[in-house]
Task: structure prediction
Amino acid sequence: MVTVQAPKARPRGIRPSRGYRVFQAVNGVVLTGVVLVTLYPFVNIVARSFSGEQYIRSGQVNLWPKGFNLTTYKTVMSDSMFWTNYRNTIVYTVVATAISIVLTTCYAYVLSKKDLKGRGILVGIAVFTMFFHGGLIPNYVLVSQLGMRNTIWAIVLPNAINVFNLLVMKAFFESLPVELEEAAAVDGLNTYQILLRIVLPLSKAVIATMVLFYAVSFWNSWFSAFLYMDKLERFPVTVYLRNLISSATGGSDVTTASDVALQVGANIVAVTIVLTMLPIMLVYPFIQRYFVSGVMLGAVKG
Amino acid sequence: MSTVETPPRVQQPRPSPPARVRPRRTWRRALRRDWQLYSLAVLPLVFFLIFRYLPMIGNVIAFRRYQPGGALFGEYWVGLHYFKMFWSDPTFWRVFTNTLVIGGLTLLFIFPMPIVLALLLNEVRSRFFKRFVQTISYMPHFLSIVVVAGIILQMVAMDGAVNQAVKAIGQDPISFIQQPGWFRPIYITSEMWQTVGWGTILYLAALTTVDNELYEQARVDGANRWRQTWHVTLPGIRPTMMTLLILNIGMFMAVGFEKILLLYNPLTYPTADVISTYVYRVGVVSGSFSYAAAIGLFESIIGLVLVFSANAISRRTVGTGLW
Result:
């Protein structure tokens, strides 16, 4: 506060008016408020996760744990189903991301070839699905008829290509210098070799971004598993959490809503929430900027 | 590679042909030349065909009687039977109204917020503070919707943070999640919490492209900050605003299906139940596939019509559109 910073280069003679300085101050307060409001639910849930059930019940836990203990964490972590489902999430995420990356890369590479005959049709086939889709029921019928219920394929295959990601990759491939590939072709490399040896090594950054995009979305997904799986041991951890929440809040059973609420402790729900979001929170500071640049790339060229 | 004709090496005074006419691209020629490239597209095309276009065709079960375990596209034609059915179904009209209300509220409250936040962020002069606010406000976007729903339910529970505030001002705690009147405020508030920061990304990008000279000129003309914002900044980001508005209108009918499914309960159906959750219950839970497919098809067609008309209107009035 003591060291007065030199004002940033502003046009001389135009000093910020008094009104503008007031605005700056108000703006700072408002944005600080946005930050606090955003953070508050996180802090609250973490505080609840470390608190004793009786303190939560009596509505005493706010920003700081009351009756600090780790027993709830031990309880949740000693549930073998929790770990089974946690492992499922990891397996689903890894397999689904791998498949998605291969399919998306292949198609995006084809779409990036500007003089390819039929390219417009190939683009159109993908883009149209952004505006019209079959709907829940036909998809449900299809996946069931294909016999994919209770298998990993129900989660992995129906969402294998995200058109937005596809367009981001296409835009990136289009930005690569054409001469490189032409030179490789002259040297006798075929299309597959060019893709593997020339294009992909140059695309590490965008592929890493795509891996993040897909991995985060598969890690967070719950609905396909909820829809197509009815075996507890096949659930991802998100469905585990969903079932916990719905039994804690009475779910769909009206009459017993208040009674059931007593069965699953609020602290158990809080701990499961914290453990489910923990991996994302840990990598978040490192992945956030890739997401931002990916979104902007997609928006500019989409 | 072997079929490439060798270019004429001999340096002859050529009768300058019109720069070698590009050979007409026939499919046969393209396939022979680029078959390796096309082969890369095969698996993705199979994906689109099976998991995107087959379900579109699968909507014919809305016009046919489908029985679980029966033929994929239903047993026999019933025409518009299922459409007439929901036309006279009072529950359908309730969920239809709810969809419009929640969609409208979303458009009204959620759409402008990122613009406001982006404008505010744009005025911040400390880079560190700006980055800090952005990083924090993006955060909820990265969470699973299940986690978000869990946090919301914990916040508004009888013993939750919101009720602590209610008690602090001397009121009795409210069972928010069981009262229909509270569902929409909770939904909209949480939606704002979750999406506003992330929504600013595109606007901030658009703001950096606004020409600085326009500001200079506006200042020379004596415009203060408000007038500069009104006459320079807002028109500068108008294409982005229109694009996002069209996309938002396109998703009007598909209001936060997963979130509502996680947050609502039979007590809040009167205000929370929307078309997509109704389709889910009628189809997946009760097994009336054809009926649910008919409602779902109706919903997607409205969505499609909305996108196309919003795009057309936008093209005609401000000259920008998605295509």
In short: The first strand of chain B starts at residue 64 and ends at 65. Confidence is low (pLDDT under 50) at residues 1-12 of chain B. The two ends of chain B are 38 Å apart (CA to CA). Chain B touches chain A through 99 residues (CB under 8 Å).
